Amino acid sequence: xxxxxxxxxxxxxxxxxxxxxxxxxxxxxxxxxxxxxxxxxxxxxxxxxxxxxxxxxxxxxxxxxxxxxxxxxxxxxxxxxxxxxxxxxxxxxxxxxxxxxxxxxxxxxxxxxxxxxxxxxxxxxxxxxxxxxxxxxxxxxxxxxxxxxxxxxxxxxxxxxxxxxxxxxxxxxxxxxxxxxxxxxxxxxxxxxxxxxxxxxxxxxxxxxxxxxxxxxxxxxxxxxxxxxxxxxxxxxxxxxxxxxxxxxxxxxxxxxxxxxxxxxxxxxxxxxxxxxxxxxxxxxxxxxxxxxxxxxxxxxxxxxxxxxxxxxxxxxxxxxxxxxxxxxxxxxxxxxxxxxxxxxxxxxxxxxxxxxxxxxxxxxxxxxxxxxxxxxxxxxxxxxxxxxxxxxxxxxxxxxxxxxxxxxxxxxxxxxxxxxxxxxxxxxxxxxxxxxxxxxxxxxxxxxxxxxxxxxxxxxxxxxxxxxxxxxxxxxxxxxxxxxxxxxxxxxxxxxxxxxxxxxxxxxxxxxxxxxxxxxxxxxxxxxxxxxxxxxxxxxxxxxxxxxxxxxxxxxxxxxxxxxxxxxxxxxxxxxxxxxxxxxxxxxxxxxxxxxxxxxxxxxxxxxxxxxxxxxxxxxxxxxxxxxxxxxxxxxxxxxxxxxxxxxxxxxxxxxxxxxxxxxxxxxxxxxxxxxxxxxxxxxxxxxxxxxxxxxxxxxxxxxxxxxxxxxxxxxxxxxxxxxxxxxxxxxxxxxxxx
Amino acid sequence: xxxxxxxxxxxxxxxxxxxxxxxxxxxxxxxxxxxxxxxxxxxxxxxxxxxxxxxxxxxxxxxxxxxxxxxxxxxxxxxxxxxxxxxxxxxxxxxxxxxxxxxxxxxxxxxxxxxxxxxxxxxxxxxxxxxxxxxxxxxxxxxxxxxxxxxxxxxxxxxxxxxxxxxxxxxxxxxxxxxxxxxxxxxxxxxxxxxxxxxxxxxx
Lengths: 740, 204
Known about the structure:
The complex is a heterodimer of chains A (740) and B (204).
Chain A: H1 2-33, H2 43-73, H3 79-115, H4 118-154, H5 161-172, E1 176-180, E2 186-191, H6 204-211, E3 216-219, E4 225-233, E5 240-249, H7 252-323, H8 338-380, E6 384-388, E7 394-397, H9 399-405, H10 417-421, H11 425-439, E8 445-453, E9 456-467, E10 476-483, H12 485-525, H13 531-562, E11 570-572, H14 574-587, E12 593-598, E13 605-607, H15 609-626, E14 634-644, E15 647-656, H16 684-694, E16 698-703, E17 709-716, H17 719-728, H18 730-739
Parallel strand pairs in A: 12-14
Antiparallel strand pairs in A: 1-2, 1-5, 3-4, 4-5, 6-7, 6-10, 8-9, 9-10, 11-13, 14-15, 15-17, 16-17
Helix pairs in contact in A: 1-2, 1-7, 2-3, 2-7, 3-7, 4-5, 4-7, 7-8, 12-13, 14-15, 15-16, 17-18
Chain B: H1 9-30, H2 32-35, E1 44-55, E2 58-68, H3 71-78, E3 83-93, E4 101-115, E5 120-125, E6 131-134, H4 137-144, E7 146-154, E8 164-173, H5 179-187, E9 198-201
Antiparallel strand pairs in B: 1-2, 2-7, 3-4, 3-8, 4-5, 5-6, 8-9
């Protein structure tokens, strides 16, 4: 982060320095283009800086452009917008710049061209020619006078030469006249100058003219002095002995004007010569300026587009993050403009979304917890709960529902209920009843259903309600049902118990006086009565006493059934107990063969030994009584330990070869006063069933296929087995509590 | 610059005939009038000969240069632009086991200018301020190309037992021109007139 900031600052400083340098260079370039001497030396350097600026900008631009292209191709968010902005800015910058450039070039070219005027040029040329003509006339005159002087001096003797020379110089108006002999030796000279310096030797071109025997006349270009030279011949000699050179000053006014014409003409010619280079330089300068401006504008467009698009790119990235579910995205808000406002709005939105999601997940967790609680409650409920979709597919079913209907409904979630019911007689009957109601369009119904199973009937109370859905369809149904078979049985048992208790109480009370009265009558009147009457009285009182005894016995049995002392659990050896009981019956020699099959290695059982003993007595007695009219009566008693559905139990099965139960009363054999035997109170099996259920065991009665009755019961081996039974069928616990 | 009035005809004619042929060629090449026929002539500077003499304890230079101006330079001259021709002289101390060392440098600059009114060429020594005018460009360039007795260095300034080399070259100097012209000259071969170095050992 810090490194990035430093880099950014460095980059900005560098860019500012570069721009500053280029601007200064541009300024200097414009100054040099105006031909300012101060910057002449720097011109190339300045131009180089400008060109370098152009090159650097160009390199930057190429880099930026290639990056933009790459981003455009890879569909980086914001690339299209960036390209559009750059294109727009470039379009906006390039066209005006090109127009300005074009017109500037035109103005420069025409502006420079207007310096040059054909008439001025012609005028200057004419002025030059005129000046030249005027000077040439003077030159000819001075040459003529020089020739005159030379002729006149040729007659003068050497002695008078200097004198004559001076005089003639003054006459002719010459500033200096010198006569040169061989080897540039000065023969005579006269000058109006007061300085003592010697005249300069003859110029080479003068000598050349002289050698060709031609006079020499020339105009000194600087001080407009006319120089003439002719051959000098001495008196009496044919060959010239030297050269006479004279200097004539031009009049000051003429010299000034000639100088002015000369200078003006030269300067004009220089301008003409400079015209092309000037145009080239201005064009070059303008081009460099144009390139710099153009490239700067394009680069600026890139920078600007990057600045503009950066927050938008952030927004795009942020939106994507939000779309992917990351609501913790916060974007930096760099500016206070509309985009800054947009970004802060985005931040607000994500914050609210995050809060909303937190709340939603919190409430979802709450709902989940509630649901879990509900599931636990449903699972622990002894009432069966079955939720169905509107098309009768199972939505949920608790464990109790499966236990009541003997089908594992929990694992069949999502299946069509009638399909699940196929082959399951209890569920099938249940579904038939339910479907009758549902087809009739009843939304709320309640019914007590009697289901007929293999081991007897089951009575269910059933209530159904429709779940609220939308207007046209119901969301499904919830059927709540309870197995009240045991409850009904318990109620019936309680009723019977009450009946028995009252009967015993009501009957027993008068029995003793009856018995005592009969015995008293017998004692008092037997001896006093005649033999015949005494016999009748004896038989009658004997019968009364006997029947009262029998009735007492019956009443005691009643009270036994009604009495329900607390169960006392203890650990004992079942095998040993069975042997004891069987030995007791074997000793009676009733003529019935009792065959005991018992496993001596069977584990100790935790149960109420007295009650178990009573169960065994009742069962054996019941079988014995059933075999009273059967020859070769035989009782098979099987006792074994086993594990059934994960529960350790002791199985006791008593089989006899008697007539068996009547088919019609098979389902009611355990009800009190249901008996097929000539003897018996009809309470034996009812008591057995009551005792077995107190141990949370199960009992069933059926006929053997080869004849004879079978009573089979299972007793849980220990507390753990009893717990397992309660877990599987919670209704049994209620029964147990009720009984306990 | 010393000039000798020629008294010996034979000597004069041999020198002159040689010079005249060169003049004829030069005049054809370098006259401003001839430059107007749009023929581009590259021009060249060359040091034909050079030698040094020790006179009264001062080393003087005698040299003969051939200076042929390019068409563009001639155009500029005809347009009143003064040309600067520079003679560069370097005194180099010869070292046996090390790179040779430039002991002294001397630059003599001459300005050549055309005056349209008098139709004469002016040659001005910018170092001394002396000037001469010539009727033809040839005579001006000829005068420029004939260096005689130019004092270079006092012998006392040189180490007695050392060996020195002298080298000389002539070049067209464009430094004094205005920037637009210099910029133009920078790219033009015709303005890059410069002779090779002419080198010899200093005689003492």
